[in-house]
Amino acid sequence: MRGNGKIIQEVERHFLGAGWEVIKLLWSSDWDALLAKDEESLLLKRLESLVDGDFQEMINLDGPAVRQKLVGDDPRIAALLADIPDDKIGKLRRGGHDPEKVYAAYDRAVNTKKPVALIVQTVKGYGMGKAAEGKNKAHQTKDISPESRVETKNRYQIPITDEQAKAAPFWFPEEKDPATQYLHARRKALGGYLPERSDKYTPIQLPDVTLFEKQLEGSAAAAGKSFSTTAAMVDIMTQLIRNPEIGKYIVPIVPDEAQTFGMEPLFNSAQIWNQKGQLYTPLEIGISVIKYKESKTGQVLQEGINEDGATASFTAAGTAYALHGIPTIPFYIYYSMFGFQRVGDMVWAAADMMCKGFLLGGTAGRTTLNGEGLQHQDGHSLILAQTVPSVVSYDPAFAYELAVIVHDGIRRMYVNNENKIFYITLYNENLLMPPMPKGVEEGIKKGLYRFKKSEQKSAKPGVKAHLFRLRCYHGSGTAGCGHTRK
């Protein structure tokens, strides 16, 4: 409410201006006959002139005082209310406390094709009687007086004595009471008495890690060419989508500039989802071999410059296993600086809903996009990722590490049914990618393994040096950031 204004009109203007249908539920059925008698709309105009503070005051007034508030200085309204006793005027309800009016409003809302805003007027602390009804302290009221209990009992016609009401026993209608039977019937129709979240779904047939043969062999499988971990990740998504067992579950998500991440090949194969299909001729036609395709059956979700929307899509896809029994696997790729820093609260909420999937922080570290200033110079996403308990974070340097991590993530989340989110940093520097050494898979998963064994013998027996390469959080690629430690 606005003590000195009228919040209903303010809210109504916003929604009407946006083209919504607005349904206002302000007055209960108690007012119907009175308003029908008001042929000149005198009472209606009087109600419109009162501010929210007046309505709050009226809740705490007795019948004669409410009458005076409604009449003001207009004798015509006094005549309109003359045949209504004071006690009835004092009990006129607001619309939100009339079950029939609430039902009618919802019925109209669900049968309206436009978006609907339903504005309902209620009384704070309704039902608590003089102890707290219509008072700002309603939230802090721990108990109500014996007199207020009797008042509440009478208002709701609870069939107990005044003495029983003062003692405040737990009361429930008898088993054969129509109200009890109705409640049981509704709970059964809704599927049970307690909210239930099911994680039962048809298990995914996880292909062997050799599906990512190109990443496991590195540059040797790419005719000796160097490539980035971002390019490797896009290729991994492409191979997953093409796989007959798992492909239909893969959901690539990008909020902005998919071509920066080299995702153009997915435009042809998986296509971009759009509920209207494609209504335009894309700019790339005739310029590039890549065709920008939008389709009603596309798999790529491109949300425009909208990290909030993309994170919402990630959450929807990552919880579909519980909501719909369909274990879709989201791969949300974004500029790493635009992740936990911007939507960390939404990632936390997703984790709280037991969401699963991959968050991919692209162009991480000190990137090659320096022309745009510091907005891409991310050096702390890995630290922020560790503030969310269910997030498993990795910072892989090589393509084969990425393949092992993605494969293990799918296994843990969708085969072993662990409630995890995998966060992986991706870099845009092109590097010569080595093939995967034998027997390092478990070490990659744990975060430390022997990349290469020295062939030189120590000059002193029993003395052996072990070299560990640690990348700074703001480093990039094997070229390092100038702060590489050994």
Describe the structure.
The protein has 486 residues and is of the alpha/beta class. The chain folds into two domains: 7-149, no CATH class; 209-263 and 300-446, Thiamin diphosphate (ThDP)-binding fold, Pyr/PP domains (Rossmann fold, 3-Layer(aba) Sandwich). The chain has helices at 7-17, 32-37, 42-49, 52-59, 63-71, 75-80, 86-89, 99-110, 146-155, 162-167, 178-189, 213-217, 229-242, 264-269, 307-318, 320-323, 340-352, 381-385, 399-415, 441-446, and strands spanning 21-25, 116-120, 250-254, 272-273, 294-295, 301-302, 329-335, 357-362, 391-394, 421-425. Strands 6-3-7-8-10-9 form a six-stranded parallel beta sheet, sandwiched between helices. It has a two-stranded parallel sheet with strand order 1-2. Helix 19 links the parallel strand 9 (391-394) and strand 10. The radius of gyration is 33 Å and the shape is elongated. Residues 471-486 have low confidence and may be disordered.
